Amino acid sequence: MFRLSHHRSKFADIGFALTLFVTFSIAISACAVALHAQEIDVEKRNGLFRQENLMAWCIVPFDSFNRPPIERAKMLSELGIKKFAYDYRAEHVPTFEEEILALKQYKIELTAWWFPGSLNDEARMTLALFEKHHVTPQLWVMGGGDVNMSKEDENRFLESEVNRLRPIADAGNRIGCSLALYNHGGWFGVPENMVRLVKAIDRPNVGIVYNLHHAHDQLDRLAEVLNLLKPHLLALNVNGMETKGDQIGKKILVIGEGNRDAEVFRTISESGYEGPIGILNHTQEDAKERLSKNLMGLQKLMKPLK
Where are the strands (E) in the chain, listed by range? Predict the structure, then answer.
């Protein structure tokens, strides 16, 4: 009797040990899977801000050196920036083709183009150049409108905006270009209105480019805004963000200098957005120096996110 009990006790001890071992192994495996998933998630988040995904913006009319197309393309190449959104003034129109050729020479992607607000002669000429050189940038178009207009006026305004923008979308679609609604204040720049307008235009190649430097009033609900826009978001232009910065002379800041930057860039990282990220000059500084400062600021911000 004693021997039988003794053997049973041994078997119980072995069974308990095996149970502990299996439980411990499962726990270790679960931790390893969780850590691996976390590593993948961190890599994905920081990949959003990788050099190859960054796009220069506001560097043509905003540049103390007033670089010609070939020098601008060379500058971007030297900085390691592979994408470019082109903005211009009337004096730059004669050099449109030169700009496209310079970008091709330095293997810079023409990601977007600041586009006329209607399908006028300049717009048609620009689209013809895109077709000729086989480039398909996003067409960034802005709008306005009184945010406090009556419901009746809002409905009329929405209809007029659809009539203005749908021909651009259709013309762009014929050569493979998307139309991106550009927030620049007013009714047009309110996130909910942008989504409403995208749906009303009702074309498959219409989306949104969102600019943080025109969205200081949306800063406290940025996660909500990005979630709303994400299905339509074609590009996101970032900026150093200060609380009420547009009201205190800090509308345009170097990335990393804003008192909300750590929060803002973490929110962007966790939003699930995966498209191009625009960095700005938008000052009369040397465009190369300003872009360099933004690159360094972004690199510093990414370290705490890892």
Answer: 54-57, 83-86, 109-114, 138-142, 179-182, 206-211, 233-237, 277-280
**Whole-angstrom Cα distance, residue 77 to residue 53?**
14
**Partners of 233 in the β-ladder:** 208
Q: Where are the domains of the chain?
A: 1-47, 51-305
* 144: nearest Cα among 134, 158, 133: 158
* Tens of pLDDT, residue by residue, the chain (306 residues): 444 444 455 545 555 555 555 455 555 554 444 444 344 344 555 689 999 999 999 999 999 999 999 999 999 999 999 999 999 999 999 999 999 999 999 999 999 999 999 999 999 999 999 999 999 999 999 999 999 999 999 999 999 999 999 999 999 999 999 999 999 999 999 999 999 999 999 999 999 999 999 999 999 999 999 999 999 999 999 999 999 999 999 999 999 999 999 999 999 999 999 999 999 999 999 999 999 999 999 999 998 765
Distance from C-alpha of 118 to C-alpha of 296, rounded to nearest angstrom: 38
CATH architecture type of domain 51-305:
Alpha-Beta Barrel (3.20)
DSSP helix/strand/coil, 209: strand
User: Would you call 231 helix, strand, or coil by DSSP?
Assistant: helix
Candidates 100, 85, 21; CA nearest to 55 is 85
Helix axes 69-79, 287-305, angle to 10 degrees: 30
pTM equals 0.85
Q: Which residues, including other chains, have CB under 8 Å from residue 203's CB and lie 6 or more apart?
A: 166, 169, 170, 173, 179
Instruction: Give the angle 155-157-159 at the CA atoms, nearest 5°.
Output: 70
Which amino acid, one-letter code, is at 65? F
